[in-house]
What we know:
Number of helices: 3
Strand content: 25-35%
Mean pLDDT: 92
Structural class: alpha/beta
Bound molecules: inosinic acid, magnesium ion
Number of strands: 9
Low-confidence stretches: none
Helix content: 10-25%
Order of helices and strands: EHEHEEEHEEEE
Strand order of the largest sheet: 4-3-2-5-6-7
Amino acid sequence: MKHALQEVISQRSLEERIAQLAGQISRDYADGDLVLVAVLSGAFVFAADLCRSLSIDCTIDFVRVSSYGSNTSSSGAIRLVQAPSLDLAGRDVLVVEDIVDTGMTLQWLINYFHEQSAASVRLCVLIDKKERRQVPLEADYAGFTLDHGFLVGYGLDFAERYRNLPSIYTLQDAAS
Ligand code: IMP
Ligand code: MG
């Protein structure tokens, strides 16, 4: 099926905003031991651009969780599919995620990283979708705040499609 896509965040806006976030993170972690932990698959593009804009040293790891029963709505049941490979004990973990929606995925991950004895755990999300939040959760760093719509591109998918698009689009005719 072919979907109608409408651009909501351009490549240029993404670049500019990510440079600002990276500047802020570089200042905040200047004296820290920063580990970026990107949540696969959606955050892989964001994490790649963010880490290359930092002016401080960092290490990078990945985690994969499964949270969605269907394509566009959260099941609430989170399962760890791929654990990070680094020992995170005593490290400053910055979770890099594409979208916070209901908040369940990130809430689960915050608890998980605390259980791994991280020295600190903060959240960096590209997009904060506030409309469907079910747990009170605020990102420490948020690129863009949007109220509604299902987004694709720049790492975000609909049924694994569109991750490779360089901008972010709304999908006009997806069920939500
Ligand atoms: P939640 O905060 O636990 O509901 O889940 C957030 C996850 O749902 C993100 O990591 C995304 O993978 C996915 N997600 C939420 N909204 C969208 C969207 O608009 N497009 C693509 N994925 C989304
Ligand atoms: Mg995701």
